[in-house]
Amino acid sequence: MTFQPVTHLRHFALAVPDFERQRAFFRDTWGLTEVADDSGLAFFAAEGSPEQYVVRVRKDRQKRMDLVAFGAGSVADVDRLATELIAAGVALVREPGPMDTPGGGYGLRFFDPDGRVVEVSADVATRTHRRIEEREAIPVRLSHCVVNSRQPERLRDFYARHLGFRLTDTLYSDHMGDLMYFMRCNRLHHSFAIARGPHVSLHHASFEMRGVEEYMRGTGRALRAGTRLTWGPGRHLAGDNTFSYFHDPHGNTVEYTTELAILDEDLWHPGRHDVDDPMVQDQWGTADPMSESVAKDQFNDPDVLFTAPPV
Questions:
Q1: The model scores a pTM over 0.85
Q2: Is the peptide bond before 102 cis (omega within 30 degrees of 0)?
Q3: pLDDT-based confidence at 39, cuts 50/70/90?
Q4: Are 116 and 66 in contact (CB under 8 A)?
Q5: Residue of 97, 18, 15, 27 whose CA lies nearest to 58
Q6: How far is residue 188's CA from residue 218's CA, in Å, rounded to a whole number?
């Protein structure tokens, strides 16, 4: 059996120039709970998630995606992953060892082929979480993270070979080729996805709501707060999940979603979906059609590559 060290998505981390504005957005508009802060570093949890935090925000003069973090099954899996990465010539940012972030644990960091930092950890203490109530329009958990890559096929193969991700579905266009690979590390349709883009960057990060009612109420709250809606509300075909995409104060795309498909992995076969079919992008037909301008909104700014964040 192929080694599958990654069990789930933990969090993603951003660096931003306007720290206080970003901090207020995640707390007051997006519905996350600030659980820790330390002189220019803030951590945000989702009330329904056992993860210590799902977003980290760091103050910096330069905007960037600091890292994406995944959970591993055990300390032994973290050590084995490090050994296999080193043997494959992958550059480690931090060798396996104890972590000093909220919840502790044992983990490592490395550069993926695009130059973004990836963290994989085990034995992180869980956070006391709770059931999200009916009509309570705050995120239950971090659903998935999508990145832009100029070489998405190479990145897809790296995450499959080294982290054990499985390809779930592919979006394609007859004139542009493959445009997005949906990757899973558990029964959820995707926890990670790779989009074809003009440069390496964060495409979007998605937050799961309790249900469609809560998803629509959260969408409405963000709109009333003046947050820019870039696409949605709608419902994708791949993953069968709802979508409302917004820009945060620094132009990163964040999404409210719900009802992401849960697969029977023994029976699932990866599908190919043509983006020129309107039903692929939005089954409901409520969102604007996918266009060049909508796609550009998710390209984001070019990221800082092969440079580890200071924390």
A1: yes
A2: no
A3: confident
A4: no
A5: 15
A6: 22
CB-CB neighbours of 157 under 10 Å: 15
Q: In angstroms, rounded to a whole number, what is the distance separating the alpha carbons of residues 296 and 65?
A: 18
Fold of 141-296: 2,3-Dihydroxybiphenyl 1,2-Dioxygenase; domain 1 (3.10.180)
The topology under which CATH files domain 6-122 is 2,3-Dihydroxybiphenyl 1,2-Dioxygenase; domain 1 (3.10.180)
Average pLDDT, the chain: 97
Distance, in Å, from the CA atom of 175 to the CA atom of 69, rounded to the nearest integer, reads 34
Between CA 241 and CA 256 the distance in angstroms is 10
How many CB atoms within 10 Å of residue 166?
18
Structural contact between residues 127 and 35, judged by C-beta atoms closer than 8 angstroms:
yes
Phi/psi for 193 (5° steps) reads: -145, 155
Distance CA 192, CA 166 (A): 10
